Amino acid sequence: MKFFSLFSGAGMANSYLVGPDEGGDAFLVDPGVFDASLLQAVEDNRLFVRWILVTHAHSGHVNGIRSLLKVYDAAIYANQPSILDVPARHVEEAHQLSLGDFRVRVIETPGHSIDSVSYLLGHMLFTGDLLSAGSIGKTRDGYARGLLLATVRKKILPLGDEVLVFPGHGPPSKIGIEKLYNPFLGEKL
Amino acid sequence: MYVPRPCAEKGCGRPALAESNNCVVHHPDAVAHVKEILKAARSSSGLRDLDLAGITIQDEDLSGLQISGCRLTAATLTRVKLAGAFIQLSFLDRATLRECDVTRVSIINAVLAGSRVENCPFEDSEIIQGNFLGIRGVAVSFDHSDLYGSRFIGSWLDKVSMRDCNLTRAHFDSAHRAVVDFHMSNTNEALFIEEEP
Fold first, then answer.
1. Pairing between strand A102-108 and A96-99?
2. Which residues, 6+ apart, have CB-to-CB distance to A4 below 8 Å?
3. pLDDT at B191 exceeding the cut of 80
């Protein structure tokens, strides 16, 4: 499996590109920007962006979609009917996406936004703005914060300590690391 | 990215080493096995997508090596030369690094969380979005390094030097800083309190 983490200076956000070792159809998580470095990562590795997975529809995570669709004929998956007016395939809790040889599980993780989802590929979890290294996503109010924390505790932490966390912002982590060092996860609901 | 496989030894929950069916404990000669992997890495493009959890490396020269997509969780590195190495999307959490030369290294989106780092110079390095949560760093110098977006949340830093560093979006929330020198670094761009992204 080829795996790349790409950083967008515009939204200070991460995008992730996943494709087969031998090249071919790939998926992209949260294209906040479509720039030369992303295009180079795709083309140099003989990949074709066939699927776009959106963790949530905030601009820093989706702004590259329109440009990307001018180059690649990709399907969008999101917990929204459309992204930037482009129709999306709806995802919800426990959906299993078959993206070529990749099997991706959808986990609804509301709190940062109502449409937030995480994507689990094997031992790799793409969390968007739900959870990052030592932090959690911003929330609108106390209710949303409680919902986010409850979601993390109920659905994310039980996935296992060695599950890798690839967040929308900041460095990667592991669930076990977050259990030990994330100061927000100790908050009372 | 490495793919975890369980050790073939019945009842063992540890991960199997790369190019082996056994973990570091149940491998008949883990030290020789790791030496072979490192020898091959030096003559090729480096370490890529390998599970090397729990290994011990001592007095090896891995200068300039590319390490990508690897797990070195709970590894012990003593007097290892990593100068000029390129470490990306790799997991060295709960590792121990003692007297290693980590100067002029590129660490991009790598994880050292929960590690113990002693007497290691990381000087003149590019450390972008490094995860240093909960590290225990003693006598470590990051002088003249770019630490953009790196997180030291919950770390314990003693005699740590970060002179002339770029600390933009670096997080030090809940970090215990015994003696940390930030001289000539842009601490105003770093976060020192609990704050959400």
1. antiparallel
2. A16, A17, A18, A41, A45
3. yes
Per residue in A129-184, pLDDT tens?
A: 999 999 999 999 999 999 999 999 999 999 999 999 999 999 999 999 999 999 99
Task: Give Cα separations from A75 to A83, A151, A170 (angstroms).
Answer: 11, 27, 26
DSSP run (H or E) holding A77 = strand A75-78
Note the pTM of the prediction, 2 decimals: 0.96
Amino acid type, B48? R
What pLDDT is attached to residue A65?
96
B54–A contact, CB cutoff 8 A:
no
Give the amino acid at B98.
Answer: R
CB-CB under 8 Å, A181 with B153: yes
Collect all residues with Cβ–Cβ distance below 8 Å to B112 and sequence separation of at least 6. Answer: B92, B93, B95, B97, B130, B131, B132, B135
Reading the block at residue B101, the tokens are: 């030369």
Report the C-alpha gap between A23 and A109 in whole angstroms.
Answer: 31
Measured CA to CA in angstroms, residue A154 lies from A148, A157, A185, B15, B33 at distances of 10, 7, 12, 26, 40
List of chain B residues whose C-beta atoms are within 8 Å of the C-beta of residue A181: 113-114, 133-134, 153-154
Please write the tens of the pLDDT for every residue from B106-148: 999 999 999 999 999 999 999 999 999 999 999 999 999 999 9
CA dist A24 and A46 (Å) reads 6
Condensed to tens digits (0 to 9), the pLDDT of residues B37-79 reads 999 999 997 999 999 999 999 999 999 999 999 999 999 999 9
Nearest one of B75, B62, B59 to B18, comparing CA atoms: B75
Q: Compute the mean pLDDT over every residue in chain B, rounded to the nearest whole number.
A: 95
Complex ipTM = 0.95
Between the CA of residue A29 and those of B41, B53, B55, B103, what are the distances in Å? 30, 28, 32, 33
* Closest CB from B4, B89, B114 relative to A180: B114
Alpha helices (H) along chain B: 30-42
Task: Point out which residues pair with A18 in neighbouring strands.
Answer: A3, A27
